[in-house]
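Q: Structure tokens for this one, please.
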Amino acid sequence: MNKLLMLLLTIFLSMPSYGFSLLKDSACNIYEKINPAIVAVDTQLENGISCGTGCIISDDGTILTSAHILEDGKNITVTMSNGQDYKAKILKLYGEKKDIALLKISVPFKLKTIKMGDSSKIKVGETVLAIGNPFGFNGTLTKGIISRIDYSANRIQTDAVINPGSSGGPLLNSKGEIIGINQAIYNPDNNISNIGIGFATPVNLIKEFIQDEI
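A: Here is the predicted structure, written as tokens:
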């Protein structure tokens, strides 16, 4: 009897480390798979450059991003994960509270794309990943959870670290699917610190506006 208990205890204690290993490998695998479909978006303004992130959603070069990155800007440049630059044109802008936009680049080959998930199935406490270009550090991966779902304002709150330059980047579920587009952070001290409150637009809301464009 004692030997059986010892065996069961040994199996039980070995399970958490195996589980954590799977979670770690999952994040690595998702990043390797998704990062080629993430781009940096730079827009020339009168007094500088507006920087953000975009997601390639069609293999012919349609890119989903945030509208506020592009407003009042010219000469939009998209930088791929391999460092290659392309000029982009605006297909559609959805400003105001929607804050989403579609860009298009012309390439002679098919691009890696990212799949859209279903934001109606998300739950508070669910693990999420964010990929973006905060402060120009292209291809940055952060991890967190869904902290809150604000149904009245149509936004997902997360503690996955989001900083300036991350706007337009994807909030991903454990399958590597887009469940939201990162848009803003709660910023009471004017960028002195990141307090771990970021917001994303649910992907189902975005689908309603772009379904005729892709």
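A few notes: Confidence is low (pLDDT under 50) at residues 17-24. The helical segments are 2-34, 67-70, 203-210.
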